[in-house]
Amino acid sequence: MHVQEQSGPGDTRFFVSAGPFDAAELARCAGAELRGSDAALDGAARFSGIAPLQSAGAGQVSFLDNRRYLPLLEKTGAGAVIVAPAFVDKVPAHAIALVSKTPYLAWARVASRFYPAPPVDPGIHPTAIVGDGAVVDPSAAIGAFSVIGARVRIGAGVCIGTHVTVGDGVEIGARSRIGSHVCLSHALLGERVTLLPGVRIGQEGFGFAVGPDGFETVPQLGRVILEDGVEVGANSTIDRGSIRDTLIGAGSRLDNLVQIGHNARLGRCCIVVSQAGISGSTELGDFVTVAAQAGLIGHIKIGDKARIGAQCGVMSDVEAGADVIGSPAMPFREFFRNVAFLRRLAKKPAQDRGREKDD
Amino acid sequence: MHVQEQSGPGDTRFFVSAGPFDAAELARCAGAELRGSDAALDGAARFSGIAPLQSAGAGQVSFLDNRRYLPLLEKTGAGAVIVAPAFVDKVPAHAIALVSKTPYLAWARVASRFYPAPPVDPGIHPTAIVGDGAVVDPSAAIGAFSVIGARVRIGAGVCIGTHVTVGDGVEIGARSRIGSHVCLSHALLGERVTLLPGVRIGQEGFGFAVGPDGFETVPQLGRVILEDGVEVGANSTIDRGSIRDTLIGAGSRLDNLVQIGHNARLGRCCIVVSQAGISGSTELGDFVTVAAQAGLIGHIKIGDKARIGAQCGVMSDVEAGADVIGSPAMPFREFFRNVAFLRRLAKKPAQDRGREKDD
Amino acid sequence: MHVQEQSGPGDTRFFVSAGPFDAAELARCAGAELRGSDAALDGAARFSGIAPLQSAGAGQVSFLDNRRYLPLLEKTGAGAVIVAPAFVDKVPAHAIALVSKTPYLAWARVASRFYPAPPVDPGIHPTAIVGDGAVVDPSAAIGAFSVIGARVRIGAGVCIGTHVTVGDGVEIGARSRIGSHVCLSHALLGERVTLLPGVRIGQEGFGFAVGPDGFETVPQLGRVILEDGVEVGANSTIDRGSIRDTLIGAGSRLDNLVQIGHNARLGRCCIVVSQAGISGSTELGDFVTVAAQAGLIGHIKIGDKARIGAQCGVMSDVEAGADVIGSPAMPFREFFRNVAFLRRLAKKPAQDRGREKDD
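^ inputs. structure came back:
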């Protein structure tokens, strides 16, 4: 079997397109202003899909979000391009500009117009097992070989994939999507929660005391609460609380392979990027960003809108709005000053470095 | 569906309480001394559960382990509190003090008295598949859609969850608990081993040689041995040995998303915290702690009771009892001295920093 | 159940040996030269298996690859040892030397001769579900409870484990091996692709725009392409592209718990070690090595044969052939020079350090 890359996104083996749409419809859904030559704006233009700048054709929409790709804009064959006002002059004459102050958001909406989330096909697969007293909304879907525990409540339009295990008593709010191989226990989920494949929610956290004959387990008696709109990436793990709840605030997004310890609390609209870890009982405010591979020790507080850099090691509280990086964490400016200092040092001739050694 | 947090642990949708108990019974199981006013010690007091200091009521037991939460102790409404001798005077007059030199251990035991591990409901789920020659103790439980290979041996009281795959020839000791979606092969497990959901044990390690046409796989012919009482967190991975065994010593506890490479050996009662990684053929003594996100290269030795700090990068042997941190690893004291030096430096005025550049 | 370690690899509960072989056959398959005393080379010697130096007996083959284990070579009881030319004199007189300039490669081939990959037992397990229009080669095997989507194509000799989910339209090339609990969607796999248990391929990447009411998802419309011979370790995650494809080049090997972001591209024969992460849209050339726990930010380029050290944090392009380490990444030499400088500093007496503070 030969694997060949194709020019654009939306391979029809995997995606179903809702188009075509005309420029006015795209501008409307994008909240964008239409700009271009009379010829380009001729109402007859219809768009069947989307594509990156370098491969888009006359029937496709593209976008520029990152200045780094500006050279591609000038040469694009796209029939329409979403751009920020600053770049509208760089759009080729043959193309329509869809001008937006938030081009990436406009792009999200145009792409979603062409490729809306697939509809849920209601029903419980005949191989799925549903426990006693479970209430499954008739508009929900449950995939093959999934196991739904006793007294579980599953809301309207929920879609549960294949090989999912939902423990007794769990509640899943309307329009949530639970990916394949998810394991979910001791948890309450709001509406529109998305769990990607392999997520583990609600297992016991890492809690034990040192006893005379080794470690003794501390029962983990809290829950996991995922508020409305929370999304969790593939193979991430969220432990249930030990004595209070582990809580992820509304709209927060966690990437793949993220670890959230017991009793941790994230505010609203936090971002936790891949392979980052938040230890037990640590609390994040709203709109906190934790970049990839960062680690936060337990029992600390991170203020609203703080940004924790990639690979950062946070050992103490971080103020609201602060930007920190490094291990241990320090302000961005300090970190890069230290880096520059050490870099200068490394360039000194060897004899100077020898003197230092002896002074 | 609206998700609401409740005041205490032990949500009856998820947990079954064994109480109530009187103070004497709690003191006995905690190995604690009873202290308090005559009124408080009046034998009539009975306790129905546990709760954190800030929300506990008269019928609940709480505890203080971390000095940081001392202000909460003085205001608690708990009927009984487990504390260290140093804090007994801070327990409010209305409450009984359960005084222990090891309050967290006492707490573990009291909490376990209220919430013992749920009993195993013996039997093989009708959808489970059990291979030829497998021996499953009649007191063991095997969950829905699990697949048990040929010649597997499963001991008394073992509980295997849903969607588990156990490869041919694996042995699982008495009272072990295997979580949902675990995949287990080429492995021998002792008694009371706990694997949380999504653990991968015994897959081939990362072994290959460079050949003329790319990498060539080196067969991985060892096993994984988990001794008695080992616990492994969600989605962690332990590769089987290549030419000898990968071995985790009795009582050791691994957190979520931990990686253990082929041929690695951990001694007894080691702790490996979330997202840490131990590379192939590295050996840990007994009672070693590896904190979160630390990484150890291959073929090194870590002495008994050494402590490896969070995000530490260990590139060479570590002596018994040593505390190291940083990447590359260095003694704790040296690390924090370096940090302080660089911090001071960063605060120097710009002209001083300019001089340095030219000297 | 008592767990006991045995002396050598190849426990017959888990592995089937193809031997015995004589020395000439081993030399032939290893591409090695036979050396030794007349007695040792006597054609009657036959070998039944392999073992490490310290436990091998007269009927077993061993090898020396790492100079660190030289003392074990001189005392080994092995009947034959694979060694580099430099160490042939250290092989005991009773043993045959199998001399190779690439002893680890020779070992890979000898070990594979004794323990070839188990043959695939063709057939679809009666509990597996195969979707409409799927084409499964009659020589392929599909395990219990696996779910194969509509229009999936599965090539000759493919082996799919238990509890696997393959999404609609996926293609899997000949002789690929898909481990248990793998979830695979929006993907095209070449031939001889190996996915270890728990791998997640093709889920939506971490893509969203900031809207007025929180984050809005950007549809992820690309695919994942794994070229011939790619191997992916347990519980690793590879997100599908957003607007182009995520691509892993032929022969590349990823270890456990690795994260690959959307639109990332790896060239041929790249190595990505455990817990490393490559962010979205980053591109690696051919033969790039990314060591354990390293992290690469998005939208950068790494040249051919570059080597990224363990825990390295790469924030900008890396030239072909460069060796970098540290966070942020710097050349190996510079990194270790900085480390040495700080180490020297930490050893200065306190009064000197005081002077620095005041100068």
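The longest strand of chain C covers residues 60-63. Confidence is low (pLDDT under 50) at residues 350-359 of chain C.
thumbs up if we can close this ticket
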